């Protein structure tokens, strides 16, 4: 999932130190003007091409996959595919901008690009956006705990329904999991082996995808208790009145009040950009071209997984699919063993990911507020504790994971994918190399502007949706 985790080993084995060096930027021989793309930095990467693809795929894959079927139900199959292709291509282009900017001076972290482009302000801006994004990602992971753990406990107790005891209440369970598992892990000085478990979450999501495909042929639509439990999306409410068969029809194009969440959900699902430069640094024989290939293959692979999950998830539940796909299966059979296994796997994966996502936030906070200060336990513990409390409060009060995907996907995700790479590129690539009116720079400027338009549009639509109050028909919990 959100894989700062991939570079766990970078972080653990002195990456912080290297980062501190990068602060001063002097550790790199400036290779400006050199035509040949030799080593990206003086740091010899050791990770193979295949492993880098795996790491970057892990960085892309996360809770976002659970929201895609919902997105498809609000756009229709064709429009969804068009948007998915569009965001995937733009995401790859954004990586091209990051790599090219980084190549100019050999930077190895997203924040450092900000520093290079706009000085301390740029660094703080990048750190801030990454912090907001990771807090959002942590919230989405804990939200999955809130919605799935009660179902797992319920299944172990053999209950078909939630009978309301405290141990079946997601809010209590989130707090317990945070105190018992996440906090101790977050207090470790280094992530250690946890940084290496990244492959586990990707495996879980492959397992999830296979189950989604299998279940499509196993579950008949309409669901029997659909009316009590899973409200269809609002357009379907109307067609539902004319007969249930409309609910079980795949729409090719559709637009409703929930369509506003589509681009944010897709943008969220493709964010991996803060991880690109560390992976680049670690890549063996690192050249920009080689790293772009790593990025393109990873994006293509995750694109395929996303498309299949969305398609089969949607074709299972049609209009009744919820913002968090896995949760929708509880409407069929709460005791289903396959789904129980998927739930457990996804739960373990997301729970272990939370501390991994927390580490970079803490690092960003520490570097921004107390740069150049040595390690201090009180700060280390205090920040972790504070972050976990904030995320818990968010998760308890947020009614649906859709709101997390929507807000984060409409603000920090377009900033990380479009706006920041675009403007960093404009500032970092010297005008002797590319004048401001050259095609690449104009493209980069349009790209940043596009991100800004996405952001304003998505935010406005989401706020309108909240204000008009129709949103709850989207299947919040
Ligand atoms: N890396 C992230 O920020 C989110 C990730 N793309 C996800 O789908 O969860």
UniProtKB/TrEMBL annotation:
InterPro entries on file: AA_transpt_TM
Transmembrane intervals: 49-70, 77-99, 124-145, 166-187, 193-214, 294-317, 337-359, 380-398, 404-426, 447-467
KW 4Fe-4S (keyword) present: no
A Pfam family that the UniProt record links to this protein: Aa_trans
Protein's UniProt name: Sodium-coupled neutral amino acid transporter 3-like
Molecular functions per Gene Ontology: glycine transmembrane transporter activity; L-glutamine transmembrane transporter activity
Source organism per UniProt: Mastacembelus armatus (zig-zag eel)
GO cellular component, one term: plasma membrane
Membrane topology, from the record: Multi-pass membrane protein
Source species taxonomy: Eukaryota, Metazoa, Chordata, Craniata, Vertebrata
